[in-house]
Amino acid sequence: MRFILRMAWRDTRRSRRRLLLYSSTIVLGIAALVAVGSLGDNLRKTVAEQPKRLLGADLRVGLDNWPNPDFERHMDGLGARWAREKIFPDKLSFRGYATPQAVQVVALDGPYPFYGEFTTEPADGAARLRRGERVVLLDPSVAKRLHIAVGDPITIGSGSYTMAGIVREFPGDSSFSLLLTSRAFLPWNSLPDAPQAAKKPVHGNYRFYFQLPAGADVTAIAAEIKTRFSSVYPVVMTSEELGKKIDTALVAGDRFFSLVVFVALFLGAIGVASTLHIYIQERLRTVAILRCVGSSAATATGIYLCQAAALGICGSAAGALVGVGLQLLLPALLKDLLPFHLEVFFAGKAVAAGMVAGFFLCMVFALLPLLAVRRTSPLAALRSDAGDRLGEDPLRIAVWAMIAASVFGFAWWQARNVNIALAYTGALAVAFAVFAGASRLVSLAARRFLPARAPYPARQGVANLYRPGNRTTLLLLSLGLGLFIVLTVYMVRSTLLRDLKGENTPNLVLGHVADTDLDPVLAAVKAQGATVLQRVPILDVTLESVNGKPWSGEPGKASATGPHFRFPAKLQATYRANLLPAESLTAGQFTGHSPPGAPVIPVSVVPWMVRLPSPLHLGDEAVWNVEGVPIRTRITSVRAFRGMQMEPNFPLLFPQGALDGAPQHTILLVRARTPADSAAIQRAVGAYPSVRIFDIAFMIETVQRVFAKLILVVDFIAFFTIATGMVILAATVITGRHQRARETVLLRVLGATRRQLRCVQLTEYAVLGALSAVIGGGMAKIANVLLARFLLHIPAAGGYGELAVAAFSVVAVAVITGVFADRGLANLPPLEILREEG
Prior knowledge:
Layout: H1 2-11, H2 16-23, H3 27-49, H4 51-55, E1 59-63, H5 69-77, E2 81-94, E3 97-109, E4 119-121, H6 125-130, E5 135-138, H7 140-146, E6 153-156, E7 159-169, H8 175-180, E8 183-187, E9 206-211, H9 218-228, E10 235-238, H10 239-292, H11 297-327, H12 330-334, H13 348-374, H14 395-415, H15 418-449, H16 456-463, H17 472-501, E11 508-514, H18 515-527, E12 531-546, E13 549-550, E14 570-575, E15 583-588, E16 601-605, E17 621-626, E18 629-641, E19 652-654, E20 665-671, H19 675-685, E21 692-695, H20 697-735, H21 737-749, H22 754-792, H23 800-821, H24 830-837
Parallel strand pairs: 3-8, 5-7, 14-19, 16-18
Antiparallel strand pairs: 1-9, 1-10, 2-3, 2-6, 2-9, 4-7, 5-8, 6-7, 11-20, 11-21, 12-13, 12-14, 12-17, 12-20, 15-18, 16-19, 17-18
Helix pairs in contact: 1-11, 2-11, 3-10, 3-11, 3-13, 3-20, 10-11, 10-13, 10-14, 10-17, 10-20, 11-13, 13-14, 14-15, 15-17, 16-22, 17-20, 17-22, 17-23, 20-23, 21-24, 22-23
């Protein structure tokens, strides 16, 4: 072993810079893997350390009625501090905005939050609210949309308040989530009607927040509440449960991004194998000499295996250092999306895992070129054709099997799902096969179809793509696969944003429009030239009986996998003839039309309505009370909601024609041409007190910013794939510099000028870039169409303009990187090149 190590070190004396360059191909992949893994560990540790700050309390309980003396006495007996909250919709009126706006009122009582921050601008807003002053705190979206400033008088319902500040931080909310909500925070004692006198609300409108004594078993207390007070249907959430839910989401995100960045590491490992192949080919005569003086094949292989291991160690160490540095940048990109302050620390496990994964993959790929060392004969020291052909080595198949197993193992380790791991491995195999097949087609087409009258530099540049020792497949794979990932992300973003900004997307919602107000409201909308995109009828229904047995409305018993279940006392239903584009049947058969007066009406429900311990099942006959009239129905289908849409969805769906004349109210989805038209519509409709107005244009703009932020994070991750492709291109060109120098000498001897040689270089790299752009862009286009159709259920966007820009960028990157790495050869005289390279 000592001899192997000494020979491995001595053999690198004239090639150490080149070997370090080879190792650089895996640096970015390992760096991205370490950065993503470290960020995931930081996020999970932060959530584990402060779940109480996310909930604002140890325990949250939602009640179905108010008050409940038994529940209050039980919690007082535990020595718990408490705060309470009432949530209900209302209208906000402001003198600077003529139309009342719908808001979600949050009335607070007590020192909530017990943990975390409730900060406002100015800073004394939360304190004034807790003191019971007649003030209101607004979410940033409300204040910005209505141009309300601190000190302005505001009317909410029938009460008058003073604007005391804008909410900047609230438990469980991020900066972006505050922009997506329209809440008004009021002091509990300022409500126009005392909650005790209010009618029985929908469950969850009343919430208790508790801070339990130190050492209390929160989980046991929560379980006791669920069992002892099931009659009032408590919705219980502990800080630990909330932390686990967030941790589950973070783990899923971490695994997704790790699978994305693994592509960069995969390409880097291929780059190591390719550059090592050239290096090993140059060393085969040295290996033959070692065999002549008595070294075994195992010893010779061990020498270069040690060099490959050194490459893996250097690349892994450098990648880990870069990844730790990148870890400090990612939190800045996610800052506005997180509902907590991220604490950054050194994640040793993530760093070690990234280094081990990178080193192992590098070594597995390095085995491919090392097989040539094992098969080198001593006779090769005298005859260059004495070596065995590598293609006949049976171990080559075993190495490829190890590579496939490594990819599958990593995918399974991240996803913990065999199907996902198989799909991921198969997708990489398909991508590799596509680019390998494309390179073969390029070689065939260049030989057979390149016009003989084409200029000499063009013919020579294209011929370089299929010369012996070319790396066309590797370069197409590294550049094209990176472009595929980045362009797919960009085109999916364009698809989502176009759906939000399109002419078929509403920017104004008019809710709870009574039958008597419908015609004048429609006239007001049409008077401003706005378009009513959809009229959605809404029916208030109550379940009376199932299969002839009256339904009591009592809570269901606990299921094996979930908490107590209670079927809602009232539901909102609608009717239409067709399913929405984002809906799909999971069971039964949908019926879109039913004649008036039919004895039994077929209806469609959502999955949770037929999931145990629900009283309903597919095929059951149910009687619903619709404004005092019993309606017999049969559940004939179950439909699931998938994808994205701006249309309201309801759990119970009647067919067209059955209840068209029943008492109902309507939601109108409106597309106004300009903000001025929207304001005019709101002023006109404001004369009808029952109509609730939701100006969602600002919300759509905020969602667009959220998408832009999320895509920026994905683009940042995917950039490593493109950067790895550039490194591989440079390393491959530099590695083949010796061969290119000899070709240059021959061409110069035959009379080629420096200008012609530069044109040959430009042609070769431009064709490589163009082919990578065409293949990668085409695959991205196909992926965007498939994702839009089968996952998002919306038309695909992202046209040929984006593809053209991406193609030009990739060609420019390929030409600049290749020419820069190949610089100098065309300027040197033939004799000087022969002395330098020979």
